[in-house]
Design brief:
The structure holds 2 protein chains of 2 kinds. Chain A is of the alpha/beta class. Chain A folds into 3 domains: about 230 residues, Peroxisomal Thiolase, Chain A, domain 1 (3-Layer(aba) Sandwich), CATH 3.40.47.10; about 30 residues, no CATH class; about 150 residues, Peroxisomal Thiolase, Chain A, domain 1 (3-Layer(aba) Sandwich), CATH 3.40.47.10. In chain A, the strands form 3 sheets. In chain A, strands 1, 2, 5, 8, 9, 10, 11, 12, 13, 14 and 15 form an 11-stranded mixed sheet that branches. Chain A is globular, with a radius of gyration of 21 Å. Chain B is built from 14 helices and 14 strands. Chain B has a 10-stranded mixed sheet with strand order 5-4-6-7-1-8-14-13-9-10, with helices on both faces. Chain B has a two-stranded antiparallel sheet with strand order 2-3. The chains are: A alpha/beta, B alpha/beta. At the A-B interface, helix 3, strand 7, helix 4, helix 5 and strand 8 of A face strand 4, helix 4, helix 5, helix 6 and helix 7 of B.
Chain lengths: ~425, ~425
Amino acid sequence: MSSARRVVLTGLGLVTPCGIGGEAYWDAVSLGRAAIVPKGPDDLPTLPLTHAGFVRGFDASPYVKSRKSLKVMCRDIRMAVAASTLAKTDAGLTSDGSYEPRNAGVVIGAGIFEHDPEEMSEAFRAAESQPAGFDARKFGSEGMGRLFPLWLLKYLPNMPACHITIEHNLKGPSNTLTADSSGSAAAVEEAARIILRGSADVMFAGGAESRVFGGGLWRYFSEKMLKTGAQGDPVYPVFSPAASGLIMGEGAAILVLEERSRAVARGAKIYAEISGFASAADGGRDRETRGAEYRADVMRAAIEAAGAKPEDVGLVYLSARGIGAEDLEESRAIEQVFAGCGEKPGLVSAKAVTGFMGYADAPAGIALAAMGLREGVPARSLVPEDAYLKDSFGFEGRSRGAGKLVMVNHFESALAFHSLVLKAGGGES
Amino acid sequence: MKRVVVTGMGAVTPLGHSVAETWDAVMNGRSGIAGITHFDASGFSSRIAGEVKNFDATKLVAADPRLRGAMSNSLFAIAASEEAVKDSGLDWDNLDERSKGVYFAAGDSAAPVESLARAFAESFGKGKGEFDAAAYLAARLAGGDGAAEAQKEPAATLAHLVRRYGIRGPALNCLTACAASAQGIGEGAAIIRRGEAAVVLSGGAHSMIHPLGVAGFCLLTALSTHNEEPEKASRPFDATRNGFVLSEGAGAVILEEFEHARKRGARIYGELVGYGSTADAYRLTDSHPEGLGAIASLREALEGARVNPAEVDYLNAHGTSTKVNDAVESLAIRSCFGPAADQLWVSSTKSMTGHLIAAAGAVELQFCLLAMRDGVVPPTINYSHRDPACDLDYVPNEARKKAVRVAVSDSFGFGGQNVVLVAKKL
């Protein structure tokens, strides 16, 4: 990127099935300890699902200033706000003076939040009629009053961002991107763009989603995207011929992005520099046959934006989420991009640890890559024996990432492909 | 830095199925508000809305079968985009796919209340009168419409646009409540300024005129209850205003890199020269009482445009017709414009269109550009009682002639979202 301004990651906030905070996530991934567990008797009812990456025992109250505000937050929003507070603390930022509110903002990826059916049940009971089933007039005259007055605000997609602006006094740009899970990859990129163009110095960016309770799975279920095969099997095969669909997780991942010179001046802990990124819509005329090529184009563009070459990349954090065609096309794209490299980058996938976390997935992947750069140890991967590119690229125990760039992919078929390149530190001039 | 112009526009609104129909109604001060017909709203405190009338998507779906099952907001978006692409004169299909981007602002779509009601009824039966969550979910699984569930996601419209318009440049959809499509246009223009696309399809589409949507806003006491005279219910800045009128529709614009447009001899409506985006960080439903967020976004947009307040000829207000918004917006305009506020013409076209929520900003930017083209400023209709808290020239009730070279469009949303766009005539 040609701008004199540069963007670094200084704070990571994670709420994942592995626990609260970045350390819990890093440890689980590093140890290859899957957090996909059976549904328990105390879990809320859900559409057909035997295993998921549940965030157990989650309580948002320590992470908000006003507990009253929790009343207008659904679970997804609570996770997002908690993750933002974790990120701010991790970044060593405080609301009173460590940033100018007007120069601080937020971009969040978020979609529809599943309504709590119990909360709506009395309103619908009042609107019951025979034989039609639903009487809209009665819903207005008798049912509506049984809803919580601020009910609508619990479920609007832009509410995580709005709560975060209020919680941390952010008065700069605020945006919410709804492009399925690619929306939060786009959110991190847009936040970086906002810093690069000088519209803010500090940005909170990421996403949150919880679709493991209630009817949240409905969409994936109806689109036949959930993992098939033996019920009761917690193994989530990704990036392999054995891939057979999603195992869901839930969570939130919010990152603090900061203008580099400002971060250096305040002595901030710098995880990584965002040195390049690129995206493209999946709308090409030949998309059915050229999916790998389209993905490869985006990866190359991100490397070019970082002013680098494919051989400079030491690790690739995979998008692969267990959808057969998607995973195969990503593997082919990686082969294409790194075809001329003598030493291939290592590959990392953490999906089998947490499950697919929807809007939290892309920023969690970026956070993992950033932690890996700081820890100096590439994360391990839980992938099947027959994982694509296992022999030619490799997954575990490689130290090829040292001193090199890392790439994070997030590909959402039919919407958009995103690749982002990180480099270690960013504190040097 | 590349420059960005608007070369195409399309609209589906309560006032018509095209930009020309909508603009004609606005110029003549006609209201698009009437009693709700989408469902029996007689039990609601607000029973009026700006519905899109007689919209028939049959031809659209016949020409593109993958639109079968698409919700109304996606169909509005496609209809408006078809008009905008055609209006731009671009040879769209032969443009490099990677030079085309989309930054839209489509909302989620109607909740399937009938299937929800069936699931609740099942749950009460199984639960011996009590809500039974497991029975409710089982009933949804057995009797619901899975395809509809996917189509009501806010990303569904974006997926339709990406596919239909063969886009391989950046693709985004934002949803920042009532500020969304203005934000989409501001950020869409930024894509072109960075050189990542030559053209960007932008705008917004939304419909919340369904029992849950209307209930949600009624509970927030945000909607007008002037039910007896629907066409007079939206009365921005008038002392008797008591809420906004919920509307539906879409507005689409083609944003184009200036040199790209100039070389092909395109008709240019205007240049986008300023964009401000701020957060109030105050409360979820209330604007900051001093309008600080609105003032900051106005200042950012004007400074970015290098425009002095005195140079602004017309400001299309957010002007929702709620007590608080209109007073705070007036205060913010006066604070930002200083003495120039006395000469500024401000109008709220929501007095005629109602509030198109995510689509509002796009349609209102179109009105700014058409005011530039025609030298006429649209009115604020239903204005008859002066409110001391709203002390600007709101162009009451009748359009007025004026050469407009610089226009500003305000869009503010729930949660303290503030977006301002500045457009300039070339």
